Amino acid sequence: MIEENNRVKCDLLKEIDMLNDSIQDDLMFGIVEEREKYYKIRKGIDDQCSELVQRKIKKLERDLVEYKNNTSYSMPRSRPRFWVSEQASCREEEIHNEYPRVSDEVGNLEDFNDYPPLRRSERLWNKGDFQQNQYYSNFQELAVLQLNGEILQQWKEPPIEIYTDFFIFNITNPREVLEGKKPIVKELGPYVYREYRSKVDIVFYENNTVSAISPKSFVFEKDTSVGNPKEETVTVINLPMITMLTMAKQGGIIEEFILSLLSNMQHIHLFQTHTVDELLWGYEDPLLKEFNKLFPQLMPDPHFGLFYGMNGSHDGVYLFHTGYQDYMKFNQIMKWEGKEFLSWWTSDSCNMINGTDGAVFHPFVQKDETLYLFASDLCRSAYVTYEQDMIVEGIKTYRFTVPKQVFQNATENPDNAGFCTPPGNCYPSGLLDVSSCRYGAPLFMSSPHFYMADQKLIDDITGLQPNKEAHETFLDIEPVS
Q1: Which among 41, 396, 447, 480 would be 20 to 30 A from 22, CA to CA?
Q2: What is the pLDDT of residues 433-470, one digit of tens each?
Q3: CA-closest candidate to residue 350, choices 412, 442, 423
């Protein structure tokens, strides 16, 4: 009897377990089904609101055209209202009597674009003050780097094609230069390369920042170039040799070795001829090769090129502000290579990392703004200021240019005293000594043809023809987005 009862008890427990499993499966199925319904409803609302915001942006652009053209239109006969999105839902909000009613229902958007542009009013205080308009408030919220956001994809993969034109100065009288005569140069190029940029290894942080690296790749564009860089040659100063002579100033065993090496290598001259491709992207230099054999720590790589190692590589890890809660900080660099300040220059202001990476700026750019950007190639931050309105492929833009003060020496612009290295060692205006951030190589940066530089620099070389149209550095910026 006891065994029979135990058997019945076990059977009942099994049936109870089966019922429990069945009930749990039904509950889980119901939860998943309801969750999918909720996600579909939520997605529908989000898509609807996103469409509405995009239509509002288009309408704002039409309103701005009307405002700039000093024209106005009659108002629709309807109660003034404006649609906004809030917490993934669409609702009406009364804000000002000059805003027309957009639609009677959320889903009824067919006639949205039939209304004329909005009338001008005090909601735009002046032509440069956009922030008082609710439209701009909505756009500010969109201009934020966030996971799965619309702006993020364009930030990661810029949709604009970028091309880099290389021009090389060929020294046509190297022997005469050795005799003390003035150099004569001839400009070769352009050698055009399609530049591919992207941002990878993206990581978001809780303090409204995002880190990324920006690898760049260059692909030669034969159709828009003047020649083949692998075949055309150019005569330039022997930069590896000049670099070695600079290192010899340190004295000691390195000075003795370098002088001995130069005396034994009779084929090494002050000027050398290479193909354009070698000069840009690198070649094995015989002098650096010999130095590398004995001092691999000082010279780990015997190759040299103006852009050697930069094709397919990146210039470090950037930490950007996402623009959340402050659209003016959108894409601003907070740190580069883990540092908030540089260490190459001799003043705190010159070592500051300011602005963006130059690829994109905050929305609603004003004409009276000074836009800062950091360029690792220049080893410093710089800035641009408004110059004039432009039309680029039918789009109204603001042209910002690099003012002359950016590269003036300390005599003309005391704020640039920190770029004199060592302190007090200042070069003529228009030159930036970047040897401190180029492993001691005696390299200087300037505008093409010494544009806006000290006139003496231009007079000392025959063949330079600086002019604003060809050699000015500028950015054409669409001010709204």
Answers
A1: 41
A2: 999 888 778 889 999 999 999 999 999 999 999 999 99
A3: 423
